[in-house]
Design brief:
Blueprint: H1 2-7, H2 24-50, H3 52-57, H4 59-68, H5 72-81, H6 90-96, H7 108-119, H8 123-126, E1 129-130, E2 136-137, E3 141-147, E4 153-159, H9 163-183, H10 192-204, H11 209-222, E5 227-228, E6 241-245, E7 249-251, H12 252-260, H13 266-270, H14 276-294, E8 296-298, E9 306-309, E10 314-316, E11 322-324, H15 327-342, H16 345-354, E12 356-358, H17 364-382, H18 389-392, H19 394-407, E13 410-412, H20 417-431, H21 439-459, H22 468-479, E14 485-487, E15 490-491, E16 497-498, E17 501-503, H23 513-526
Parallel strand pairs: 5-10
Antiparallel strand pairs: 1-3, 2-3, 3-4, 4-6, 7-9, 8-11, 9-10, 12-13, 14-17, 15-16
Helix pairs in contact: 2-9, 4-5, 4-6, 9-10, 14-20, 14-21, 15-16, 15-21, 17-19, 21-22, 22-23
The structure holds adenosine-5'-diphosphate and magnesium ion.
């Protein structure tokens, strides 16, 4: 806190301090970090002397408490390590994923000064209203409600002053320590420098709100059906201030907390008449579409970043953590999951192998044996309704798969870390809803529907006579969430090119067969 206050007078300039320089701040941060680490280790040693087993059992919660109270960098490192289930034991990751990222809100005058400096005008000229109390405050930013001069409701995310400079400084210090650790081979085959660079890149990206704005806009353009991504107000946004449409919904985190406290009406109050299963389904579908179809995905679909609107629409906020998957990887991932679901385990493993990174220490034959055994158990139990839900859960098997990776020194592919993270976060978010959720089953369903969507595209090819059957099939696919009705160009037997066109029928649920038939006829006429 002291460091961020001290720096609030001079905004950090990205990239000004090169990796080679050592600033006064670096030295100050280094001594603070060293002191924290040393006192943790000393206390740990004493605990171990007293009672070895108890010390080992309490290591994970103590580590979490240490990171939680050691400032923004420590929190971010903890949040990153929580997803590296290929490096750390499962219980540590589980504990770290509960890292609490709530900090006291900054006083309003600080926020006002920052917004005015960033946007270059007095607050009351910029907005018709601006709430002094934030609706959320975390280690990187806090969010305020505001009103646009045109009357619309806004959410303004304001970055805590100096936070990027603190992060950069801490990561410089950590990189030097990591370099030393690598020289002494402290972490064996794992390169500490690489890991620090990875966490730094991952975290610093979150401090550029222009990037977050771009991601939001792309996700918004890709979204279909009852999924809502806030519109960004570009004119009221900079690298440190992000102004967007206010989403009139209840954070899923709040609904779940109320429900878990024993209030059975929690979901019905947030979205009257919409069953929790429908919300879980929409959430899963939206995430899976981002992950497998469009390839650009919100990397942290945590309950606090998902809002539920009154009509059951699922909205996402917080696009600082996002990932992108190339088409080739999406194809491999789809095939892997599909083969797994169908019990073609050898084929599934071959694809899985393209998604991970064996190291020189890996015994591939042993890894293959171990993983195939886990996959077989997974496939068997997915359909075995007698097993307890906990044992059928994807997370359970993913845990085993990651255990096999750790034992065999296989690493996650760096560019897929966020993919697995998003999938795991989706799973744990959906688990908190009062429904039986099985990620693998949801993925299987999603692919089946996707393929039916493709079937419609194929069905639509002989467009010479759009029939009621075709319209019915198309409507069914649209209702199931096929994103579009695509009518492809094709060659007639005489060699003429025919057809071609595209219709996005967003209100598919509301429109009837007749409408779809009309759309098909219109497309035919256009062709
Ligand atoms: N556009 C929005 N509309 C409504 N609430 C929002 C909006 N953006 C953020 N919030 C609320 O503010 C909280 C924090 O915003 P978020 O972008 O997640 O910041 P952080 O990076 O600090 O987690 C969210 O959990 C949500 O409750
Ligand atoms: Mg958030």
């Amino acid at each position: 806190v002291a460091a961020s206050r001290a720096s609030s007078a001079t905004p950090p300039r990205p990239g000004r301090t090169g990796a080679g320089e050592v600033t006064l701040r670096d030295l100050r941060r280094a001594s603070a970090l060293a002191w924290r680490a040393a006192s943790f280790l000393a206390r740990d040693a004493i605990l171990r002397l007293r009672d070895r087993d108890a010390a080992a059992a309490s290591l994970a919660p103590r580590l979490r408490a240490l990171l939680e109270t050691s400032g923004v960098t420590a929190v971010k490192i903890g949040q990153y390590l929580a997803i590296r289930v290929d490096l750390l034991p499962a219980e540590i990751c589980r504990e770290l994923s509960r890292l609490f990222d709530r900090v006291p809100a900054l006083p309003f005058p600080v926020i006002r000064a920052l917004v005015e400096r960033e946007l270059g005008a007095p607050l009351d000229r910029l907005f018709a209203g601006f709430d002094e109390e934030p609706i959320g405050a975390a280690s990187i930013a806090q969010v305020h409600r505001a009103r646009h001069r045109n009357g619309s409701r806004l959410a303004v995310k304001v970055q805590r002053p100096g936070v990027a400079a603190v992060l950069r400084s801490d990561f410089r210090v950590l990189r030097r320590l990591a370099w030393l650790a690598d020289r002494l081979a402290v972490f064996g085959a794992v390169s500490a420098v690489e890991l620090v660079d990875e966490i730094a890149a991952f975290t610093l990206r979150e401090t550029d709100f222009r990037q977050e704005a771009r991601t939001a806009e792309r996700l918004r353009a890709d979204a279909v059906g009852s999924v809502h991504i806030p519109r960004i107000e570009r004119r009221l946004s900079t690298a440190r201030v992000l102004t967007m449409e206010f989403i009139p919904g209840v954070p899923l985190a709040a609904i779940v907390a109320t429900a878990e406290a024993g209030d059975p009406q929690a979901f019905d109050r947030a979205a009257p008449g919409v069953p929790p299963a429908a919300i879980a389904d929409r959430l899963a579908r939206a995430c899976l579409r981002q992950l497998f179809v469009t390839g650009l995905f919100q990397g942290d679909p945590h309950p606090a970043n998902v809002l539920v609107e009154r009509d059951g629409t699922v909205a996402f906020v917080d696009f600082g953590i996002f990932g992108e998957l190339a088409e080739t990887d999406r194809v491999v991932l789809r095939r892997y999951v599909r083969n797994l679901a169908l019990g073609r385990l050898e084929a599934s493993f071959d694809d899985y192998l393209l998604l991970v990174e064996p190291t020189p220490g890996t015994d591939l034959a042993a890894y293959r044996r171990e993983t195939l055994a886990i996959m077989a158990g997974w496939h068997r139990s997915a359909g075995d309704l007698d097993l307890s839900p906990a044992l059928r859960l994807t997370a359970h098997f993913q845990g085993q798969m990651f255990g096999a990776m750790r034992r065999n020194k296989v690493r996650m592919r760096k560019d897929l870390v966020l993919f697995w993270r998003a999938l795991a976060v989706l799973d744990s978010t959906a688990q908190r809803l009062p429904v039986r959720f099985d990620l693998l089953a949801a993925i299987r369903r999603f692919f089946e529907e996707e393929e039916r969507g493709e079937l419609v595209r194929q069905l639509a090819i002989p467009l010479q006579s759009p029939s009621r059957d075709l319209a019915r099939e198309a409507l069914r696919a649209l209702r199931r969430g096929a994103p579009k009705l695509v009518v492809e160009t094709h060659e007639t037997p005489q060699g003429h090119r025919r057809g071609g066109g595209e219709a996005t029928v967003l209100a598919a649920a509301a429109c009837g067969e007749a409408t779809v038939l009309l759309v098909l006829l219109a497309l035919r006429a256009a062709a």
